[in-house]
Amino acid sequence: MRHIPTCIDNDISAYKIFMVSSRTCPHCQRVKDALNQHNINRNLMKIIEIDSDCRRDEIMQHVEHLSGSRTVPKVWINGNLIGGADDILRENSSGNLRQLLLSAGALYS
């Protein structure tokens, strides 16, 4: 089995958008809804759903190491931690989320 922190770090680097989420989390759904407002190239985005992953504790331990908290959602764009639901929704409301996605090359033209 692959080392979880290495896998997560590699995914953060490899994907323009990387999200740690839970299918049962309403905050996660709001972030997904905000992201879905944009014309994102889905091949450049990866979402890990922790509620169905047997490695959940190890994943969340590394998320805490990277972000300072064990809560979901957590979103990285272009390798940079943007934050959780409040951060993404604020960036979306201000128009900054679109700019971040454009700058990352995550949107279809």
Automatic annotation (TrEMBL):
InterPro entries found in the cross-reference section: Glutaredoxin, Glutaredoxin_subgr, Thioredoxin-like_sf
Domain Glutaredoxin: 17-82
Molecular-function annotations in GO: glutathione disulfide oxidoreductase activity
BP term (GO), one: cellular response to oxidative stress
PROSITE patterns for the chain: GLUTAREDOXIN_2 (PS51354)
Coiled coil location: none
One GO cellular component term: cytoplasm
PANTHER family with a match to the protein in the record: GLUTAREDOXIN 2 (PTHR45694), GLUTAREDOXIN-1-RELATED (PTHR45694:SF18)
Protein name: Glutaredoxin domain-containing protein
The species this protein was found in: Parastrongyloides trichosuri
Lineage of producing organism: Eukaryota, Metazoa, Ecdysozoa, Nematoda, Chromadorea
